[in-house]
Design a protein that fits this description.
Number of strands: 7
Largest sheet: 7 strands, antiparallel
Number of helices: 2
Order of helices and strands: EEEEHEEEH
Radius of gyration: 14 Å
Helix content: 10-25%
Mean pLDDT: 89
Distance between the termini: 23 Å
Low-confidence stretches: none
Strand content: 35-45%
Number of domains: 1
């Protein structure tokens, strides 16, 4: 499924998409190892109404979140929610909220 801002019926509610997370890339350092300075980041390739983009995410936030391939962030009745690949609606946890603030 590609990005559309059309509401999605989920669990008898209307989910309004804001961002479609196509895939998540965990940090990979190969033979160089973890960098000594700076934040260790992965990235999320996502689509929204402005198009496709790659968004960095700190490793700590990524591993504390449920952000994964083919998940969505959107709203239900004005509340930010995560729609996972199995079509379960979940309120954003603290890590997801922190990342979302950096995206918007």
């Amino acid at each position: 499924m590609t990005y559309s801002n059309e509401p999605i019926a989920v669990e008898n509610q209307q989910f309004q998409p804001l961002l479609h997370l196509l895939y998540v890339e965990e940090p990979d350092f190969g033979c160089e190892g973890v960098p000594e300075t700076g934040a260790v980041c992965g990235s999320i390739v996502a689509e929204d109404d402005t198009g496709r983009r790659t968004i960095p995410i700190e490793e700590q936030l990524l591993f504390a979140s449920r952000l994964d391939d083919n998940t969505w962030i959107g709203t239900v009745q004005g509340n930010l929610m995560l729609l996972d690949a199995k079509k379960h609606l979940l309120p954003l946890n603290e890590a997801e909220q922190m990342w979302w603030k950096s995206v918007r």
